Amino acid sequence: MSATAQLSKLAELRAKTDRELATIIRNALELGLLLAYTEPDADPTGVLRHRAADIYADTVLLVEKVENVREQRRLEEKLRQLHNALDRQVRVQMASA
Known about the structure:
Layout: H1 3-36, H2 47-63, H3 69-96
Helix pairs in contact: 1-2, 1-3, 2-3
């Protein structure tokens, strides 16, 4: 296989890996949002909220690894939504305490 063909194949594999990483992150963020929007009375021990916070922490590190700038921006917007949802939960809990 020529050097050009090898580089082309590597670029193709990297693009596929990048798409798969973005999909994994997007799915994790969707789950995090679902967990973060769980009503406090449905999660009295905060297990779901803590899981949503863990998802946020994990995905923050992964989003910067996505090479497609447009996809990275979309994921960053989902991260902001999750961050805001988690903040909203904290404010609700503090107000009810």
